[in-house]
Amino acid sequence: MTSKLIQKFLIFIFTATFFTILTIGIGRARKASIQQAVIPVAPANTPTAPATSTAQKEPPAVKQKPKNLKFTGTTYGTPFGQVTVAIDIENGKITSVETPDYPDSGPSIYARPYLIDQALSAGSADIQGVSGATYTSFAFQHSLESAIVSAGSSIF
Amino acid sequence: MGIPVHITVIDSDEEKILKSTKSAENIFREWDKRFSRFLKNSELNQINLGAGEWQDISPSMFAVISRCVELAEMTNGFFDPSVGGYLAQYGYGLPKKYELPPIPPTYRDIELDSERSRILCAKGQVLEPAAIVKGMAIDAAGKELSPLDGWMINAGGDILTKGDFPEQKYWNIAIQHPRIKNAIVTTVKIHNEAIATSGSYEVGGTTRKGENWHHQINMRTGNPTSGLLSLSVIAPTAEQADTFASIAFLYGLSKGVEFLEKEKAPYLFIDDREIIHKNELFAAREESML
After folding, report:
1. Which end of chain B is flanked by fewer CB atoms within 10 Å, N or C?
2. What is the mean pLDDT of residues B204-213?
3. Which of B139, B261, B246, B142 is nearest to B196 (CA)?
4. CA A135 to CA B155: how far, in whole Å?
């Protein structure tokens, strides 16, 4: 019984430490919207960075200087299984969110966000279009066609 | 109809391209002029304003409204073109300053006379067939592009492709993340088929009269469906993809999955916890993001 208590205590300590680090990392990042991408356990102190979709401001100057930071959280349990969250931060901007340990079967697949620009520059998938339920899709403002096609567009 | 339309073509014949894309654009203009509930002079708005009396309607309109009634009957009212009334009341589209009658009209109040191409709606009934019109317009426009080697139409996020994309054959279509604007969730390989995405995260803002609101209204309850953020469905035609995505979204997750499994359609739901529910048919088309 005691070992279970110790287990719970350790899990709590590690989880709290993870979220403290995560919170500091997010506080320095441009996109507060990443909060939504994190698996549903809200950290105690959410940063106050604005979560506006039109935020195009430059990130505040980041004092600490590894250019690339990788945060990997501790693994913890959810109703869907074990979860680990990892985020990459480059020059104060979150550039990717990974869930290396998210259970991938049946209903437990998390909708990991991949930034469009990152997907394009990674060169893995040449994207010809974006399907979304939007009338003013942000994606239309990106030129996603390759140079050899000609295109026409209008608003109807 | 207020949606951006983007056409991508693959061909080496400039003149053929210009001619075909011009025809395709005209198709969209025609459909818009006829079916837009945002245009005062559209046939649709005239019908809505004249509800309560028998009205002559065009064969196009007749075909679309009949199809809507068919789908309403099939879904037992989950889908109903009378949704226009709910949308107008919330200030989304015409008629302006509109209030739903105390007993809101449903698809059962629609009478169609095929011999004389006429429609009779209940007084105060507002029709909105947009859930399937987008797909139908895309297919019609696509026919104008058939002389070309390859093409893709993207109308407000519903996409139809034909032919090979150079050097890769498949057209890679990314699925937009419902909450993060410039992010995507996955990419699928589409070839000679369509993909449509229904969702609740963009149109018309997110609050009306102090409540969380979106335009995907479950006509059995009169309220926006909850539990889902988006649904992407793949089908041979844009009309089918649009129809499946619209209906299954209104059904909600479990009934929607049941419906799409029966239709053997590839699907990807994203629920409001941002969890994905997809079938093997969809996964088989996915392109790795790594």
Report:
1. C
2. 50
3. B246
4. 9
